[in-house]
């Protein structure tokens, strides 16, 4: 398969995934704003199409940009999420028809252009990779919204791969100098550029913290012990009234969770999710540990001591498969601990990709040598704000995101 055909097929696959997520929603639910933190699902759908026209038609052909009203309506920076439900949004059918035209013109331009040209927007098919990844990001945003739909979204929940008996505890990462960041011309500019850092030896959890481990924290009064929480964490705790992860509730002596409209028993062997940074930080203190820094997490995920270099993925340089990680939101939840032994990092950490984003102790800041590309709003405008890093970023109070964590500690492994 040539490069252009592969790009066309991946663009089509991204659209199919988006539309499959939206398909179970009726026309009222797809237009509704289900939570002030989330857009109406149809806004994300329209934004994906407008963004594609802006970059794969306007920027590549020089024709006029999309209709000015559309540009303003679907501008993520001009319109905070809480106001998007009041905007003049296209219906689902109108978005689909509009996108049909955008897709057709984008494919015509793809046939006429060289996606491997040396110009930065084309090099390594950058602009096409950006559009595909952008749609995948909004699929996850839509999923966050679907988890909040009143009355339930209720997709069929596929059976996860089986877990296996696992040894918890920590792996050791030796002190040293490590090259972090990416040298690639890839969409996420906040991961550029490559630079060398010096790290003291540290330990890091082999697996993400599980629901069973988190239950122990709750049972030991974790939410009622102010000394476990930082000042801002105590403020959040008082304001939120939280006593457990989002979507959990305690009934008849056990924990239940609401997952996409299904009420299920909390499964102790799954990574805990829907916890904010303050909850992760308090748990780590309770465990006598701490959250890893962003750099520690990256080294634990990618460093291969046998070759002395960083891998592309925890398991190596080969592309992800369903044997490596919980991919593409297909499970509508986390897999059991130990489900992906082939996805282990060289240092022995597992499930670092796919189940949950993992909070780190780091603020979201630029790497040395950072240069914004292709536009400052991609990352740069968020640096130095009230954001914590987890190979993405969000406010430390956010719980609607699919975030969990693993702990770290100073010194040698025990």
- Note poorly predicted spans: none
The multimeric state of the shown protein is single chain
CATH topology description of the largest domain: paralog of FGE (formylglycine-generating enzyme)
Spatial extent as radius of gyration: 22 Å
CATH architecture of the largest domain: Alpha-Beta Complex
Explain briefly what this protein structure is.
Helices cover 32% and strands 11% of the residues. It is built from ten helices and 14 strands.
Q: What is the element layout, followed by pairings?
A:
Layout lengths: L2 H20 L4 H5 L9 H21 L6 H6 L18 H21 L13 H21 L23 E4 L2 E5 L14 E5 L2 E4 L5 H9 L11 H10 L7 E4 L2 E6 L2 E4 L11 H10 L7 H9 E2 L4 E2 L46 E2 L29 E2 L3 E2 L8 E2 L3 E3 L4
Parallel strand pairs: 10-13
Antiparallel strand pairs: 1-4, 2-3, 4-14, 5-6, 6-7, 8-9, 11-12
Helix pairs in contact: 1-6, 3-5, 3-6
Could you walk me through the main structural features you see in this protein, from its secondary elements to its overall organization?
- The strands form six sheets. The chain has a three-stranded antiparallel β-sheet with strand order 1-4-14, with helices on one face. Strands 5-6-7 form a three-stranded antiparallel β-sheet, with no helix packed on it.
- It is built from ten helices and 14 strands.
- It folds into two domains: about 5-145, Four Helix Bundle (Hemerythrin (Met), subunit A) (Up-down Bundle); about 160-414, paralog of FGE (formylglycine-generating enzyme) (Alpha-Beta Complex).
- The relative contact order is 0.13.
- Helices cover about 30% and strands about 10% of the residues.
């Amino acid at each position: 398969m040539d490069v252009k055909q592969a790009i066309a097929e991946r663009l089509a696959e991204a659209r199919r995934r988006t539309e499959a997520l939206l398909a179970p929603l009726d026309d009222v639910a797809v237009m509704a704003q289900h939570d002030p933190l989330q857009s109406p699902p149809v806004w994300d759908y329209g934004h994906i199409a407008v963004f594609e026209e802006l970059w794969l038609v306007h920027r590549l052909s020089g024709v006029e940009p999309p209709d000015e009203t559309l540009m303003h309506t679907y501008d993520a920076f001009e319109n905070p999420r809480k106001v998007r439900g009041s905007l003049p949004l296209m219906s689902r059918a109108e978005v689909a028809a509009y996108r049909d035209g955008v897709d057709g013109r984008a494919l015509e331009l793809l046939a006429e252009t060289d996606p491997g040209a040396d110009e930065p927007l084309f090099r390594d098919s950058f602009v096409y990779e950006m559009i595909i990844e952008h749609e995948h990001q909004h699929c996850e945003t839509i999923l966050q919204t679907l988890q909040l739909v009143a009355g339930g979204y209720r997709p069929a929940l596929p059976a996860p791969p089986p877990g296996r008996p696992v040894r918890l505890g920590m792996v050791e990462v030796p002190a040293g100098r490590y090259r972090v960041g990416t040298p690639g011309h890839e969409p996420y500019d906040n991961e550029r550029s490559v630079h060398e850092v010096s790290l003291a030896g540290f330990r890091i959890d082999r697996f993400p913290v599980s629901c069973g481990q988190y239950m122990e924290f709750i049972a030991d009064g974790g939410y009622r012990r102010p000394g476990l929480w930082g000042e801002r964490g105590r403020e959040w705790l008082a304001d939120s009234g939280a006593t457990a992860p989002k979507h959990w509730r305690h009934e008849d002596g056990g924990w239940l969770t609401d997952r996409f409209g299904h009420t299920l028993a909390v499964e102790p062997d799954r990574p805990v999710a829907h916890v904010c940074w303050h909850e992760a930080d308090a748990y780590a203190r309770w465990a006598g540990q701490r959250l890893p820094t962003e750099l520690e997490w990256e080294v634990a995920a990618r460093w291969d001591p046998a070759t002395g270099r960083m891998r592309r993925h925890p398991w190596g340089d080969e592309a992800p498969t369903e044997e490596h990680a919980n991919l593409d939101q297909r499970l509508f939840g986390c897999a059991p601990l130990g489900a992906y032994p082939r996805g282990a990092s060289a240092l022995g950490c597992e499930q670092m990709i796919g189940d949950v984003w993992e909070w780190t102790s780091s603020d979201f800041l630029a790497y040395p040598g950072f240069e914004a590309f292709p536009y400052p709003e991609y990352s740069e405008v968020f640096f130095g704000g009230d954001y914590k890093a987890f190979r993405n970023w969000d406010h430390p109070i956010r719980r609607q995101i699919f975030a969990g964590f693993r702990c770290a500690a100073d010194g040698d492994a025990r």
